[in-house]
Amino acid sequence: MDPREQIRKAFLEKNPLSICGGGSKGFLNSAPLPERKLHTTGMKGVLDYEPEELFIRARAGTPLQEIEDLLHKEQQMLPFEPPHFSSTATLGGCIASGISGPARPWRGAARDYVLGCVLINGKGERLRFGGEVIKNVAGYDVSRLQCGAFGTLGLLEELSIKTLPAPEQELTLELELDQPRALERMQHWNRLPLPLSAAAWQQGKLRIRLSGTAVAVEQGRRHIGGEISSNTSYWQDLKEQRLKFFQNDKPLWRISLPRDCGPLKLPGDTLIDWGGAQRWLLSESSCQELAAIAAGAGGYVSPFHAHSPVPLAPALLRLHQRLKKAFDPAGILNPGRLFAPSP
Amino acid sequence: MPLTAELRSALESTLPKDGLILEPDMLRAYECDGLTAKRALPLAVALPQTGEQVQAVIRLCHEYRLPVVPRGAGTGLSGGAQPLSNGLVLSLARMKRILEINPDNLSARMEPGVRNLAISEAAQPYGLYYAPDPSSQIACTIGGNVAENSGGVHCLKYGLTVNNILGLKLVTAEGELLNIGGSTLDSPGYDLLALLTGSEGLLGIITEVTVKLLPLPPTAKVILAAFDSVEQAGRAVGAIISGGIIPAGLEMMDNRSLRAAEDFVHAGYPVDAAAILLCEVDGTPEEIDEQLNKVKRILRQNGCSSIRVSDSEQERTRIWAGRKAAFPAVGRISPDYYCMDGTIPRHRLPEVLSRIEAMSEQYGLTVANVFHAGDGNLHPLILYDAAKPGELAQAEKFGGDILTLCVEVGGTITGEHGVGSEKIDQMCVQFQAMELQQFHAVKDAFDETGLLNPGKAVPSLHRCAELGAMHVHNGELPFPELERF
After folding, report:
1. Mind giving me the DSSP string for B316-382?
2. What confidence tier does A308 reach under pLDDT thresholds 50, 70, 90?
3. Could you please report the per-residue DSSP string of B288-316?
4. Do B343 and A136 touch (CB under 8 A)?
5. How far is it, in rounded angstroms, from Cα A229 to Cα A227?
6. What letter does residue A52 receive in the DSSP assignment?
7. Binning pLDDT at 50, 70 and 90, where does residue B479 land?
8. Residue A133 is nearest to which of B106, B411, B419, comparing CB atoms?
9. CA distances from A16 to A30, A35, A119, A260, A331 (A)
10. C-beta of residue B120 within 8 angstroms of C-beta of residue B129
């Protein structure tokens, strides 16, 4: 059945649906979802790709790998380095979950690269927002709003994404440093015009990735020092959570922090990403305890595998519920994913 | 209907001593924004100095159902801050304190009335700056920049306002204070920062902004390249980008605008060129040299007739001065001009420019073109004389046709100036009824009673239906001399 008709029917019958793409990120914010599924994997295909115009337009069920392969052939990339978590990952899921890889502090997040979308709202209306051009301020930015909304505002059917030229050269440096000194170094380099594109610390080792022209990368290398790393897959393995750190039975937490947050006493093993702004923690501690630590440092924590509604102040939660209603008045699309439905 | 005595005294007791303007003479200063052709006198202007005062004013407006038009510096070009004769103008211009510069978090927190350029000036001692640089940056405010999602000549590489802010404090239509985002790179829940940026004051009143700062590039140079045809210049733009280079700025001017700019500021532009490109690269001196060589090679391969590279900061500033003064320069060669703001896919540029030229002949009005070439944002300036009966209406109709053309080739009716009251009718061309209805539903989720900037940015379906019917019959608006809200 055409997805628009399926949603229309669900709307009329007030019968909730859960949206399923490649299933690679189903564990994120996974509330108990309705049994009736709407599958997007049939909605495949790149519709338009013009490297010179710096955008790609594709149907949401297109495999993410297919998009990245196509860009690679033209020496372009998705600058936000979306994690796949499985070979089945789709473009739609990548945007709906809105997560970004190690380059995020320097190149921006998934939402920074969304130019437009075709959305089917909870009434089964097919709507087009944004477009293929970089500058567009006609109407509210409904396309970017879908990024990280986990399909709760509508089904993404088609997406236009901004692309960028891939860097001419890339290099990773390794420095032996303890956590406080590594954080201090990252903070210092963040403030300088260096071609940084990733910075992570783990078990006494700071890794810095430089990307740009050959000259810029070489100048950056001389400034930062350290050893050139021979491990070429580190950033891929970090992004896809294939590093040994992640092969652990303890619950995994993600903590988002200000970039100037120094060492933080966390109850468990830590991997520092995004130059200090994102920390991965393996810990049996309670959500409450970790939330207090994160809030004390000006950030927030979320469990990465288990479901828990996102922490929202009461006024913000009410606004979320009203917005959800504006797009999905019958509350049939992924109800409960992301936050509690309105009473 | 004037303010009731009761509401007036409630507003007065909420605001600082000289914070409520009621005298018609003084209200006159607020009767329009940068879109000077459209004017109205508001009932009053409120000038709060704190977020609490904003909240108190909004609560009163909500209680008394008084429409509110928020305003920053009033430099907007689309009539977004155009007053309503039955409403209040809420000016945030007095809230202009920078509250915090945090160099280690690469962020700065400030009140909405802080001028765009003042942010970079305050960040400069730390080797940092705020990237979006709209042409009006010496005057325009950060609150207005957020409301309009302002761009600038450097947004091809560094992004628009939406890509450069971290947090907002927002007073809702009911007077509730919301904290959205903050000092982290992301925040839980929906991306409200994206939704609010560019919402033109319809969803809430911004009382605080946290922006992202960037390290200042060590140095920058600009190439001035001349071309014998606009088509060639357009092709060169595409070739630079497909060559893997994202310049810090990439601008084009046609012969008419470059001549006007040259006469005005003597930037050293080649006045015989059909078009010029300004291409800026930034980075370390070595990096710049490498990039410049690449760009020069591409420009030559694409038929440029001359190349000049700035060899000092002074010369770079002079070359840019011509571009930045393009609008006032055109103002010198015509009594009035009407600045348009459409975006098109870059490769359609030659076609669009020749169709604009054809329209120009048809309307008997001259056009000068200034173009943010790198990101496809076109600013045709339509020259007219408001003293000649009917010319303003003709210029507006011509402008409307240009925007329709932008939509037709896959672009948009506004790249960075916003819809405001100016392009409200073109919204009916860009969007279908169901999409507009979705926008209204979003508005209702924030502002159920419709008190914030009513009538701007999103047209009513009724309005579009009427316009649509007219298009079918003869393609002309009824009573073009009337103001259109």
Report:
1. HHHHHHHHHTHHHHHHHHSSEEEE--EE--GGGHHHHHHHHHHHHHHHT--EEEEEEGGGTEEEEEE
2. confident
3. HHHHHHHHHHHHHHTTEEEEEE--SHHHH
4. yes
5. 6
6. G
7. very low
8. B411
9. 15, 8, 17, 43, 7
10. yes
Global ipTM: 0.97
- Determine phi and psi for A300, rounding to 5 degrees: -150, 160
The token pair at A188 is: 């210092």
Tokens 């404090």 locate to B169
Contact B62, B174 (CB under 8 A): yes
B418 and chain A: CB distance < 8 Å anywhere? yes
The pTM (predicted TM-score) of the whole model is: 0.95
Residues 110-169 of A with CB under 8 A from B: 111-112, 121, 125-129, 131-142, 144-145, 147-149, 153, 164-166, 168
Enter the tokens of residue B357. 């030229």
Contact A135 B458 (CB under 8 A): no
Contact (CB<8Å) A141/B194:
yes
- Burial group, residue A185, by CB count within 10 angstroms (0-12, 13-18, 19+): buried
In A226-255, the residues whose Cβ lies within 8 Å of chain B are none
- What lies within 8 Å, CB to CB, of B88 at 6+ separation is B42, B43, B44, B45, B46, B57, B61, B66, B67, B68, B69
What are B91-132's pLDDT values in tens digits?
Answer: 999 999 999 999 999 999 999 999 999 999 999 999 999 999
Mean pLDDT of A312-320: 94
CB contact under 8 A, A190 and B106: yes
Condensed to tens digits (0 to 9), the pLDDT of residues B246-291 reads 999 999 999 999 999 999 999 999 999 999 999 999 999 999 999 9
- What is the Cα gyration radius of chain A? 21
What are the residues whose beta carbons fall under 8 Å from the beta carbon of A226, sequence distance 6 or more? A173, A174, A175, A206, A208
How far apart, in whole angstroms, are the C-alpha atoms of residue A136 and residue A116? 10
Reported confidence tier of residue B468, pLDDT bands at 50, 70, 90: low
Distances in Å between the Cα of B228 and the Cα atoms of B231, B279, B305 are 9, 17, 7
